Amino acid sequence: MITTTLKASLLAAALGIALTAQAVEAPMPKELPPYGPERPLPVPQITQRTLSNGLTVWVIPRHGLPKVNVQLAVLGGTSYDDAQHPAQAELMAALFNEGTDKLDSKQIAEKLQAIGGDYGANAGRDSIGVSASALSSHADELLELVADTALHPSFPAKEVTLEKTNALQSLKVNEADPDWQSMRAFNHAVYGDHPYARDELTEASIQAVTPASLHALHDQRMRPERALLVIVGKVDADQVLKTVEQQFGSWTAQGPAPANVAQVPTGAPAQKLLVARAGAVQTNIRFGQPTAPMRDPDFIPLTVANTVLGGGFSSRITQDIREDKGYSYSPYSTLDVRRNGGNTLAVVDVRNEVTGATLSELSRLYQGMGTEPASPEELLRAKRLIAGIYLLRNQIQSALANTLARYWVSGMPPSFMTTYVTDTGKVTAEQVQAMGRKYFAPEKQSIILVGDPMAIDPQLKPIGRFTPYQP
Known about the structure:
By secondary structure, this protein is an alpha+beta fold. It has two domains: 47-248, Cytochrome Bc1 Complex, Chain A, domain 1, CATH 3.30.830; 272-468, 2-Layer Sandwich (Cytochrome Bc1 Complex, Chain A, domain 1). Helices cover 45% and strands 17% of the residues. The protein is built from 17 helices and twelve strands. The model is unreliable at 1-24 (pLDDT under 50). This is Insulinase family protein. It comes from Dyella kyungheensis.
């Protein structure tokens, strides 16, 4: 029997759905004002210094919230790890705040709490990064803590053992995750023997870690002449620079610097790989190829082209595969570009029965990027989406610090923050089509499938032979 309360709830829900549907279907007003002009993001007023040890320092004073954000970026991420022990830099960075020569993990946590602080460290493919923030009245204490954790970690044996245990458990969880499995195979297909292919921890690399090996790795990687320190917030630049000199001025490099990583080759033949997942009811599809670095002239027009293809809700992939065909709930394409290269990637998860049909649609859509020019509406929507997200995101203080550090790691100047939006607005339909021919030709795309071979094999015969992937 349905109670009065439940009846009321159902009626309210139905009314809400009806009102939502009515709101969605309501026509837009005819006399909407035109879009305003694009507003480039002003170049931040950066006070720049290079310490005698080679450390580059950028200070960006900002009015507003009484907060300071610090970003330390050091060239030497997981792509610098050796092939036998991939991603050990990831474990090293994770242990920065678990103990220093002066403080244990509890004392570090207490100091952060006392200054309203937040702290995180990680290793990406190109760099090791520390992100921290606190109330601006405690900027000196925050910089002291960042310097202590990044430059003088003690790697306590107990904390190393715990981190290794957690990493092994996470690895087991990941190995059962079809999305993680698909990206491991995709990186292998796209990057081959390039170091970008080995950015995932393995059991062997985890087991090989010791406090001594982490100290040796730290001595090699954490080098001031290969580092940038960004400080953004309500601070006095001169005072902050004095503190930086006190805390980071004695930082010295140990031993020879690691060899630079080569640029990703873009001419490798595409691969078709199948990761067997018996009993799976859906197929995880990854579809893409390698690209040039961010500093390449293709970067901005390729960003616009990817947005037209699959970077927004009005994109070709979403409108076709989701809205028209109903094959996938949230298909999209993305562009991952780093210091030495990157990739384009379509991510589409579908039920088994439409695996072959989805692959055919992806090939058609990718082919169309080189043969069907972007319409004025597609181009306008893509540019405004890129500019709007970019401008909104970089109003946030922490995002500004992160963006500046990311550009520096990728070899871009700070002024790229302004030219990015204006140059995006200049991209033409012809440039988008040229990017389509260069980066989206279907025959150049590696295809990774994670699924049940018994369920999808018959659909794959028209597409070609898929090689079983074993890591």
